[in-house]
Amino acid sequence: MSKFKQLYKPLLDSAQWLAPEETVIEGTEFGHWLLELDSLSRRFERHCQAFTVSLEEQTQLSRECLTGDERALIGDVDCLLRKVVLKGDGVPWVYARTLIPLTTLTGQEQDLAQLGEMPLGFRVFTDRSARRDALVVANVGSEDRPVWARRSRLWLNDKPLLVAELFLQEAPIYKESLSWK
Ligand SMILES: C=C(O[C@@H]1C=C(C(=O)O)C=C[C@H]1O)C(=O)O
């Protein structure tokens, strides 16, 4: 089992999601990252020479495996599960887990199943219909050493997908000297 699966999946699974206004993130530097409504990949690109995605796993997930929360957000449907690690200059920055309902993988959106190592954000945010909502955040670390995660729903042509992201220790969001841009 890969390190990512072993360490990061349980962290994301344990997240107690909160609305941003219920947390301390607003007005902070890292808050600007967590609240990004546009593409996170595009923003990361501005903080490294080479932004890459490594595809850890892509499998089909039966609707019975969804949590109640997930069902409420994307429907009671079978999904494609995509797990990736986003890297800046080879350093792991984010572990991301995306649920793409099979009902979303229709028409123009069929290509979402074939992204491979192309960042999902590059595909989604070039589409004019793209939008993000239902954004929640969680600190899965401690108060002294926060490890931030967020979950949000993306819409493409009114079809949903659900992305959960865990911001790893080396991610630029923790670097105070870097202003958000
Ligand atoms: C959703 C975005 O895409 C990023 C890329 C992902 C992928 O390739 O699977 C997953 C989550 C995101 O952090 C984004 O850039 O905002």
From TrEMBL:
Positions that bind substrate: R82, L120, E165
Pathway: Cofactor biosynthesis; ubiquinone biosynthesis
Matching InterPro entries: Chorismate--pyruvate_lyase, Chorismate_lyase_/UTRA_dom_sf
Localization: Cytoplasm
Chief location category: cytoplasm
Entry keywords, A to Z: Cytoplasm, Lyase, Pyruvate, Ubiquinone biosynthesis
This protein's record includes keyword Cytoplasm: yes
GO MF term list: chorismate lyase activity
Gene Ontology cellular component list: cytosol
Reaction(s) the record says it catalyses: chorismate = 4-hydroxybenzoate + pyruvate
Name of a matching Pfam family: Chor_lyase
Source organism, top-level taxon: Bacteria
TM ranges: none
EC nos: 4.1.3.40
BP-aspect Gene Ontology terms: pyruvate biosynthetic process; ubiquinone biosynthetic process
Similarity comment: family membership: Belongs to the UbiC family.
Chain's role: Removes the pyruvyl group from chorismate, with concomitant aromatization of the ring, to provide 4-hydroxybenzoate (4HB) for the ubiquinone pathway.
The protein's name in its UniProt record: Probable chorismate pyruvate-lyase
Organism name: Photobacterium gaetbulicola Gung47
